Amino acid sequence: MTASDPGFDPAEFLPDDLLERIRERAPLHDRDNTFPEQDLAELRDAGYLSILVPTERGGAGLGLAEAAILQQRLATAAPATALAINMHLVWTGVAKVFSDRGVPGLEFVQDGAVAGEVFAFGISEGGNDLVLFGSDTDAVPTGDGGYAFTGTKIFTSLAPVWTRLGLHGLDTTSADAPKLVFAFVDRTDAVVTGDDWDTLGMRATQSRTTRLHGATADAAHVVRRIDPGPNPDPIVFGIFSVFEVLLASVYTGIARRALDLAVQTAHTRRSKRSGAAYSQDPDIRWRIADMGLAYDALPPQIAALARDVDERVDHGARWFTLLSGLKHRAITMAKHVVDQAMLVAGGGSYFSSNELSRLYRDVLAGAFHPSDPESAHSTAASAWLGPLEA
Q: Going by fewer Cβ within 10 Å, which terminus of the chain is more open, N or C?
C-alpha cells in the first residue's frame, strides 16, 4: 500500500472523533505542562503505534509516505502529541528501513510496538553537534555482548511513559575502538528521568533530560557498532531519513491548522469600517494567499521523499541534502504561516487561551531539531560547491 493508493484513508487510522478528543485535551496539557496519557492510550488502542510494522508481524503495514500524512493530520489536532509520537515512530520506521533492505536486528522493535511498547529516542546530547556521528555517552562492554551506558541525553520525548530507550554511546575501550554503539535499554533504576521540562512550547511532549548511570543493553538489543563520523550504515540512513520526514510532517501539520484557523477567522471577523467580512479585504486576502502558496509546496515534497525511502530509491550522497533541506523548508514555512495567521486573526490571537497562540509557541521548537539551519545550509553548500578547502 502507498500513500497514493486510493484505498488509503487517513480517517481509518485517525478518525475524526478521535482527533477531536485529542484537540480538546491539547490546551489543557499545554497549560498544565503534563503528558497526554489519554492521547497515548487511545492511539495505542487504535493500533497507531504499529502503523509502520509489516502486516506479517501484526502491524498495519503502512509506508513512511502514509505515516507522514497521518502525522500531518495528528499535528493539526495536537502538535505536541504528534511530536512525541514521532519519536516512537522513528524507531519503528528505522525497523522498516532495515526489514525493507533485508537487514536484521530490529524485529524486537516491531514486535514490541505491536504489543504496545513505547520506544523513546535518546540521541540528543547537550553541546554535541555531531548528533548521529558522535556521542559523549560512554558505552562500556559488559563482556557478554551487551553494553552499559553512562551519560546524559536531552530532549527525551515521551519521558514519563517510554518502556525502551533507543540510544547511542561511544565505546573507547574495545580492541577496535572507537565505535559508536546503537542499542536499546529498559527503564530501570540506572535511568534517571529529570523533571526539568518547563518550556515555551511543545510542553506536552515532556521531553525531559535523561541521565544514564550504567544502564545496560543486553546483546540482543545492541543493534549496531559503527565507526564514528559520517557513515553509510543503515542505522544512520534509517534514523536520519525517518526523523527528518516525520519531523517535517508535524510542522507542516501545524501550518495547515494555522491556515485553516486564519481562513475561518477571515470569514467570521467583520470590518467596522466597511461592514464586510475580512475575507473581502484585499490585504487579508493577500496574506492568506501567501500562506497557501507557502504551505502547498511542502506536502508534495514530503510525499515524494517519503515514497523514495519506501521504494529504496538511491540518491547516494544527495540524500542528506534532500532530507535536511526538507526539514528546514518545513520549519521556515510553518513559522511564516503561523506568523501570518496571527496577523489575520488580530489581537485576540495574542491571548494564551487562543489556539493560534499555542501554535505560535509550538512552531518555534522546530529550529532546535536536527538538522538545524546551520547544518542544513552547510550540507547544501558542500553538495553544490564541494567541501571547504583545508
A: C
Q: Work out the widest C-alpha separation in the chain, in whole angstroms.
A: 79
Cis link prior to 387 (omega < 30° from 0)?
Answer: no
Any idea which architecture 120-226 has in CATH?
Beta Barrel (2.40)
Domain 234-385 architecture: Up-down Bundle (1.20)
CB contact at 8 A, 213 and 273: no
State pLDDT tens for residues 33-59. 999 999 999 999 999 999 999 999 999
H-only helix segments in 14-100: 16-32, 37-45, 64-77, 79-100
3-state secondary structure of 155: strand
Written as nine digits, the cell of 249 is 510532517
* Domain boundaries along the sequence of the chain: 10-118, 120-226, 234-385
Distance CA(309)–CA(299), nearest Å, equals 15
Whether the full predicted model's pTM is greater than 0.85, yes or no, is yes
Residue listed under C-alpha cell 493508493? 5
3-state SS assignment for residue 222: strand
Q: Comparing C-alpha atoms, which of 355, 359, 354, 353 is closest to residue 339?
A: 359
